[in-house]
């Protein structure tokens, strides 16, 4: 895994501004701590920072391909192409010659063979920039599910691009400006594909290729979810899911560096760990190392929620069954409230969107794992694919005229005083914006002629989760892991598995009346009964009162600072009422209230750190 960046300028020479290109590339050092380089050509600079995973010695980038003794194409690549050895042999049979064992060269040669259609031949998670020297054109390519990020910023004579916004913003031509639509995205969490929050910046959409040529940028899809009839019976479907997942996990255990698995002891992570342990054992490799996260002290559950089970106990049971080595990683309030860790999380995310202490704990977990391993497997994507979230099983939520995860019930959720200006939602027309984005999403849902209710409705729900909700979680995991140079692979996002399960009827996905029935059946022979029957648990959150007190102190500092940037979004009267509520809250209430004021703190830190300009 790596970080990429670059600059195309048809009316000037990027090589004359090497300081700017160096600054852009340096921002990606966290993603690529092992090596770095820049390639300069006519009208282009391609920067790269490398995390060496495959062919450590040979996969140096940017990488150039030559034809007839002249450079024809150059690539700056981030990601992994699984099964690349078979693709290399296919290309070799077509006459291509290889100098390395890396998947990067396979991708480069795929372009020389198939041109702009190369992505259709790649199986994996990737984001890359490929400059065609002959045509003077740039391709920006992103994987099908959007596992790897890729941003671009059109300029008057070309484009700036990078794995993360910080790479683009390091160039003097780019500015951290926040307009109305950016605010709407931040405040609604609709996660519009292609939107990048900052004015003038875009994301390459999942499954798309953006082509940059003189005078224009065009983006074209090469993959999307399709509705197809499902003709397999239940037994065949269970067997097919098991085989597709086994293949995905096995392919993703290939690495030339230490590999591990994230293990909560839930169905998803246990499925991945069990299959990965089997793959390593079959190849005669050392046992799989697995890591879970926990907090001390455990503290009471959030109001209205049951106490979560201890992940470490389930993880240890699974590890013992499959012959893996389990290590629990325990975090405390001191670690989670460390200003350096919180600043690192914000710097990794580039945006104030996030899950508060859950982002910080994930960052700290990954930082600890990185001391032991370079690649980790994760169960991300299973809930969206197999219907694991409660919303899938609440008919009101699936029928609501909004994104299911935004459904709050007929009475809504009581709203207390807000730190942000209460007039903002109306001024920004947030309800209309949310409704428009929902209508756009519905318009792209593939239809199967003659599909009855509720199958048609549940196909819609599945599509919304896979194309709007899942990308938010994938970006979070990518940013928290790559901030410490850890590559996280997500086998449940294998596109062959996604295509198959997406078209399995909802009645078959829930054939025994439980969430993720199909996955449970597929993994029944691999997992202990305690994990197969374990109720889904959310990602753990810290319950230590010291953490809440730390945040309360930081809030007090912000309220005393009349020059705080976030005050431009606040209403003094409402904010004073909200602060008074925090001040008089009992310790057990403070944990509930912190969701609101921690968000305020994060927005202020972001506006300060990035010099964000508010624009009309």
UniProtKB/TrEMBL annotation:
What keywords tag this UniProt record?
Amino-acid biosynthesis, Asparagine biosynthesis, ATP-binding, Glutamine amidotransferase, Nucleotide-binding
All copies of domain Glutamine amidotransferase type-2, residue ranges: 2-215
Pathway annotation from the record: Amino-acid biosynthesis; L-asparagine biosynthesis; L-asparagine from L-aspartate (L-Gln route): step 1/1
Q: What class of enzyme is it?
A: ligase
What chemistry does it catalyse, as a reaction equation? L-aspartate + L-glutamine + ATP + H2O = L-asparagine + L-glutamate + AMP + diphosphate + H(+)
Pfam families for the chain: Asn_synthase (PF00733), GATase_7 (PF13537)
Q: Which PROSITE patterns does UniProt cross-reference here?
A: GATASE_TYPE_2
EC identifiers of the protein? 6.3.5.4
The superkingdom listed in its UniProt entry is Bacteria
- Signal peptide residues are none
Concerning its family, UniProt says: Belongs to the asparagine synthetase family.
The cross-references to NCBIfam families, in alphabetical order and at most eight, read:
asn_synth_AEB
Could you identify this protein by its name?
Answer: asparagine synthase (glutamine-hydrolyzing)
Q: Which organism is it from?
A: Streptomyces yaizuensis
């Amino acid at each position: 895994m790596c970080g990429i960046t670059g600059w195309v300028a048809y009316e000037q020479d990027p090589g004359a501004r090497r300081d700017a290109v160096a600054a852009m590339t340096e921002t990606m050092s966290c993603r690529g701590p092992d090596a770095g380089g820049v390639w300069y050509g006519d009208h282009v600079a391609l920067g790269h920072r490398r995390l060496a995973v495959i062919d450590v010695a040979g996969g140096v980038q940017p990488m150039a391909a030559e034809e007839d003794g002249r450079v024809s194409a150059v690539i700056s690549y981030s990601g992994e192409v699984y099964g690349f050895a078979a693709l290399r042999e296919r290309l070799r049979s077509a006459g291509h010659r290889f100098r390395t064992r890396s998947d990067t060269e396979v991708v480069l040669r795929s372009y020389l063979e198939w041109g702009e259609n190369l992505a259709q031949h790649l199986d994996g998670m990737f984001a890359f920039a490929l400059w065609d020297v002959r045509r003077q054109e740039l391709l920006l390519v992103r994987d099908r599910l959007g596992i790897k990020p890729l941003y671009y910023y059109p300029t008057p004579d070309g484009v700036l691009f990078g794995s993360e916004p910080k790479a683009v913003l390091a160039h003097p031509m780019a500015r951290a400006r926040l307009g109305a639509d950016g605010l709407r995205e931040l405040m609604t969490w609709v996660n519009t594909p292609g939107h990048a929050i900052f004015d003038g910046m875009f994301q390459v959409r999942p499954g798309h290729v953006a082509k940059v040529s003189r005078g224009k940028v065009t983006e074209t899809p090469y993959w999307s979810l399709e509705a197809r009839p499902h003709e397999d019976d239940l037994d065949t479907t269970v067997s097919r899911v098991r085989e597709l997942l086994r293949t995905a996990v096995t392919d993703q255990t290939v690495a030339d560096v230490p590999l591990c698995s994230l293990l909560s002891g839930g169905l998803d992570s246990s499925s991945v760990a069990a299959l990965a342990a089997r793959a390593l054992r079959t190849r005669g490799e050392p046992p799989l190392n697995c890591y879970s996260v926990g907090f001390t002290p455990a503290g009471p559950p959030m109001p209205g929620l049951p106490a979560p089970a201890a992940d470490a106990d389930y993880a240890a049971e699974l590890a013992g069954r499959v012959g893996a080595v389990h290590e629990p990683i325990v975090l405390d309030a001191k670690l989670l409230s460390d200003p350096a860790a919180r600043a690192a999380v914000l710097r990794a995310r580039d945006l104030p969107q996030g899950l508060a202490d859950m982002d910080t704990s994930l960052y700290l977990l990954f930082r600890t794992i990185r001391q032991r391993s370079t690649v980790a497997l994760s169960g991300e994507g299973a809930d969206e694919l197999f219907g694991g979230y409660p919303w899938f099983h609440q008919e009101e939520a699936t029928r609501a005229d909004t994104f299911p995860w935004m459904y709050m019930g007929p009475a809504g959720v009581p709203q207390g005083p807000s730190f942000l200006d209460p007039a903002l939602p109306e001024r920004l027309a947030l309800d209309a914006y949310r409704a428009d984005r929902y209508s756009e999403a519905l318009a792209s849902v593939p239809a199967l002629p003659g599909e009855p209710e509720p199958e048609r409705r549940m196909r819609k729900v599945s599509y919304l989760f896979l194309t709007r909700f899942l990308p938010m979680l994938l970006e979070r995991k990518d940013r928290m892991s790559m901030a410490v140079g850890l590559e996280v692979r997500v086998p449940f996002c294998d596109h062959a598995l996604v295509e198959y399960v997406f078209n399995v009827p909802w009645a078959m996905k829930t054939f025994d009346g439980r969430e993720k029935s199909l996955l449970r059946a597929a993994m029944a022979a691999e997992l202990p009964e305690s994990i197969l029957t374990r109720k889904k648990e959310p990602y753990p959150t810290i319950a230590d009162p010291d953490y809440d007190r730390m945040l309360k102190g930081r809030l007090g500092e912000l309220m005393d600072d009349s020059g705080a940037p976030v005050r431009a979004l606040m209403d003094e009267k409402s904010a004073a009422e909200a602060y008074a509520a925090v001040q008089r809250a009992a310790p057990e209430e403070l944990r509930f209230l912190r969701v609101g004021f921690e968000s305020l703190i994060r927005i202020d830190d972001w506006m300060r750190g990035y010099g964000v300009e508010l624009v009309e």
